[in-house]
Amino acid sequence: MSLSGQPTDAVRLARAYLSHATESGRVAVVALVDEVGPVEAANRVRSGDAALTDITSDTRSYPEGLVRRQLENFMAAGGRLVIPEDEEWPVGPLMALSGTEAGVAHGGGPLALWVCGSYRLADVLGNAVAVVGSRAATGYGEHVASEFGYGLAEQGVTVISGAAYGIDGAAHRGAMQAQGVTLAVLACGADVAYPAGHQGLLSRIAREGMIVSEYPPGQVPARHRFLARNRIIAALSAGTVVVEAGRRSGAKHTAKVAVALERSLMAVPGPITSVTSLGCHELMRRRIATPVSSVAEILESVPQLDASDARHA
């Protein structure tokens, strides 16, 4: 597909460039785009006129021709770059990220989303729940995550997670076993198999569900990108279920973001002897999260969900 000659293509290329030149969730960058538009914002960043401290000379000078080729190659491989100017853009869910910098790390909205999968974002995100938790999950936790993924998908609910080992992978697999929709939000490029042991799972999600990332193809994961990714998981979901989490856990960060965005937060009780349930018990003890032990209780705890929805076509 050619990208030349159309105004919309110029906007898409500008947003693709900005996703290379800036880290995700930078409120100053989002504000600049909102003020002058993506094309002018890209021009200012490229020329060095934009006084943005997190942009280096290396990223600023990323060649336009290389951005164009990368975007064309990504599209040729079946992916697409979804931007706020597209009808597919999930306006409602992501609107919550506007002005959240005080309560959410990397709190600005995404400039664009690199997507693999045949579903339209706006269609599958009207009815979505995140199922997250520990990478070092117990058998109990993986069983619960799989059951929740399956049961939610059976009810027409999109299951969102981060494709990590443990709870994330179990939730994705459960949803696909029910032939439902699952969406993986990555902290790296949508074409990067991370973790490496989930290459097969990610390929299956791309075929049967959706993979979404703020990061351009080839970008590798980093700690700050996982934190930024967590806000996208929370924003795209009407509610978040923490299945297992230690006292210090990425899942607890996702939970914090969900609360800041005024999303429903739930947690699964576990054995009092299990360190992977300490974070869940803390969330419940502090009355931050609602205890849930079944799909029915999740549906009751997230009033925005419509469990009567038919499966996404």
Q: Nearest-angstrom radius of gyration?
A: 19 Å
- Globally, the shape reads globular
Total helices: the number is 14
Helix-strand sequence: HHHHHEHEHEHEHEHEHEHEHEH
| Strand residue content | 5-15%
Rounded to the nearest angstrom, the distance between the terminal CA atoms is 26 Å
How many domains? The number is 2
Structure summary, number of beta strands? 9
Low-confidence stretches: none
Which range best describes the helical content: under 10%, 10-25%, 25-40%, 40-55%, 55-70% or over 70%? 40-55%
Taking all residues together, what is the mean pLDDT?
90
CATH class annotation of the largest domain: Alpha Beta
Classify the secondary structure makeup into a structural class: alpha/beta
State the CATH topology of the largest domain: Rossmann fold
Strand order of the largest sheet: 1-2-6-5-4-3-7-8-9
Q: How would you sum up the major sheet? A: 9 strands, mixed
CATH architecture of the largest domain: 3-Layer(aba) Sandwich
Domain Smf/DprA SLOG: 108-302
GO biological process, one term: DNA-mediated transformation
Protein name: DNA processing protein
Family: Belongs to the DprA/Smf family.
